[in-house]
Amino acid sequence: MSQTTESLISLLDQHQVSYQRFYHPPVFTCEEARALTPNLPGAETKNLFLRDGKGKRHFLVTLPDTASVSLKALGEHLGVKGLTFASPERLLKYLGITPGAVSFLALSNDVEIAVEVLLDSQLAQAEQILAHPLVNTETLSIATKDLLRFIQEVCGHTVQELQRDALAPA
User: Fold this and answer.
1) For residues 119 and 104, what is the distance between their CA atoms, to the nearest angstrom?
2) Which of 31, 65, 123, 140 is surrounded by the fewest CB atoms within 10 Å?
3) Residue 107 in 3-state DSSP?
């Protein structure tokens, strides 16, 4: 059973992950988030939920909101053929969320540890990261070190740091 936003907040509190909570109208794109939630404290992110060509491996890739990455180059880097965006059905099945709410915090719903996690190296250096708490009507600002601890220790995922500059040009 998937977490609710309130059960996720309770889990964060239980594991002493501090955050600032912001409520806002629904956002579905990085552009909408910038327009409707200006000046929140933390690095703004773009989260890609991807799958390989056979649908056997799934990836959550978190980048700075203005960054771009070639799926072909990323697939080659990961040793994956046919890397593409996963369907909303897969997003619901693996992370328990719907489009627009994708963030690291959804890994709390991946109890089978089926999703591989990649964090852009630039974001790994940020003091705070912005993340949706399973809905696109709220954003949490969380210290990066606390967020990484939560993902690794509480959710059980390994976070692979992604060096975008090492990928072949698009």
Assistant:
1) 9
2) 31
3) helix
Q: In angstroms, rounded to a whole number, what is the distance separating the alpha carbons of residues 129 and 144? A: 6
Can you tell me which residue has the tokens 């040009």?
169
* Residue 49 tokens, joined: 């939920």
The CATH code of domain 5-164 reads 3.90.960.10
Mean pLDDT of 21-30: 91
More confident residue, 1 or 135: 135
CA separation for the pair 126, 144 (Å, rounded): 7
The residues that bridge with 61 in the sheet, in sequence order, are 48, 118
pLDDT of 106-153, one tens digit each?
A: 999 999 999 999 999 999 999 999 999 999 999 999 999 999 999 999
Buried b / exposed e across 23-48, counting CB within 10 Å, b at 16+?
A: eeeebeebeebeeebeebebbbbbbb
Site of tokens 């070639």: 70
The domain ranges of the chain are 5-164
Q: Dihedral through CA 103, CA 107, CA 109, CA 111, nearest 10?
A: 170
- Please provide the distance, in angstroms rounded to a whole number, between the alpha carbons at the two ends of the chain: 39
